[in-house]
Amino acid sequence: MLTGADIQALKDYVSAPGNFGQNQAESTVRLHVTHSNLKAEFMELRMDLHMTVEAVKIKLSTHCGTTTSDMILQMKDSSGKLVAVLTEPHRKLGFFSPEDGWVLHIIDTNPNSLSARGWLEDTSKVQKYVMSDADYDARENTYRQYKAQKLKEDPEWTAEKELCVRKGIPYVAPPKKEMVEDEEYQAAEASKLSVGSRCEINPGGKRGCIRYVGKCEGLPPGYWVGVQLDEPVGKNDGNVKGRRYFECALGYGSFLRPNKVNPGDFPEIDEFRFSDEDEI
To answer: By the 8 A CB rule, do 217 and 185 touch?
Structure first.
């Protein structure tokens, strides 16, 4: 079993120069690279100490989009202190005695550079290609063509139905949405409800207080019940499509058909109430 000292020795070995993930030659150094136009430290590169400053700039230009003629290159130590500005193109990197973890900072002097104004980082600046309907229809073997063919064969075809067929299991069509045209729909059920009464919503068992009974502009014809729920499991604050029917906190309001609302003695549920048998 490894001791704490053994584990620490292993960590020291792995983090030591030349042992970082793979063997490192004595003439190479690992340097972090930052850029004046890019927000974050964006890479770590291995550099040979025998490379000239010009060769270093050429290598960096392939990564950041800044040309060598537009590049001012600074070297900083691991604390961020400026060590040197690499201005002599034929000077070798080893002249500056860099260590693993030091920083090469690129200053891009070209205001029209590829990296300027966030073009390499902000994807919102990139124009997205949008295919026109005509171009999409001209393509072969598309989902749109497949769907059209399936609907031609079966007007009730759906992707869900197709999956069931492929899996060899029965397909149960979802119930069709109720199409209501009667302005007095569920008037009888609504007449049994009164504003201010406690209620329970079924299915679901959510409880609350009836705050409105009547028709709602913007909702399908017929009668509706506005309920202020005891918990924030609703969808509104008593407002429906710009018209307010009652006041409550956002998320506590709900509008339902009268047959979903059961009036009665439904006190607010106390989640912390225990019976004698539940007490410890």
So the answer is: no
Is residue 253 domain-shared with residue 157, that is, in the same domain? no
- In the predicted structure, residue 275 carries a pLDDT above the cut 60: no
Taking alpha carbons only, the member of 260, 253, 214, 255 closest to residue 236 is 253
Q: What is the pLDDT of residues 193-207, one digit of tens each?
A: 999 999 999 888 899
Has this prediction a pTM greater than 0.70? no
- How large a percentage of the chain has pLDDT more than 90? 41
List the Cα angle 274/278/280 in 5-degree steps.
110
114 close to 63: Cβ distance less than 8 angstroms = no
With the C-alpha atoms ordered 62, 65, 70, 71, is the resulting torsion angle positive or negative? negative
What is the domain count for the chain? 3
Q: How far apart are CA 27 and CA 48, in angstroms?
A: 6
Q: Classify 55 as helix, strand or coil.
A: helix
Give burial (CB, 10 Å; 0-12/13-18/19+) of 224.
buried
Gyration radius from the chain CA atoms: 35
Strands 71-76 and 206-214 turn out to be: unpaired
Residue 258 domain boundaries: 187-263
Nearest in space to 211 (alpha carbons), one of 195, 200, 224: 195
Tokens of 139: 């393509």
**pLDDT, tens only, 37-78:** 876 556 788 899 999 999 999 998 887 778 888 899 999 998
Give, as one character, the DSSP assignment of residue 163. Answer: H
Per-residue confidence (pLDDT) for residue 17, from 0 to 100? 46
Backbone angles phi, psi at 33, to 5 degrees: -120, 130
The answer on 239 and 159 residing in a single domain is no
Residue 131 lies in a domain: no
Maximum pairwise Cα distance, the chain: 94
Tell me how far apart the alpha carbons of residues 69 and 67 are, in angstroms, rounded to a whole number: 5
